[in-house]
Design goal:
It is found in: Cell membrane. GO terms for molecular function: transmembrane transporter activity. Belongs to the drug/metabolite transporter (DMT) superfamily. Small multidrug resistance (SMR) (TC 2.A.7.1) family. Gdx/SugE subfamily. By secondary structure, the chain is mainly α. The chain has one domain. It has 4 helices and no strands. The mean pLDDT is 95.
Length: 106
Amino acid sequence: MSWIYLFFAGLLEVLWAYYMKQSNGFTRLVPSLITVVGLIASFVLLSAAMRTLPLGTAYTIWTGIGAVGAFIVGIVFLGEQLTTTRLIAALLITAGLVLMKLSSDE
């Protein structure tokens, strides 16, 4: 169950990061509220996952899902540039996440 919590915590990290961008420096109410609620929910799920997962594993995977997810959302929804270097960086992060998961006893 901890891995499921961690996965959804990572997805919520992508959600709140996207809406933080949409909040325009917290000057727009609805995106700002979604940011705060998503952030809290993400932390709650991360905390639940950390009950049984090691800190290093849980935190690395949480931030990795957020980083790669935000990268993808930026390209797909915000028109950010996809370059070879950025793609390689995202692939390296993903490889690190896979290795972290494989090295976990949980």
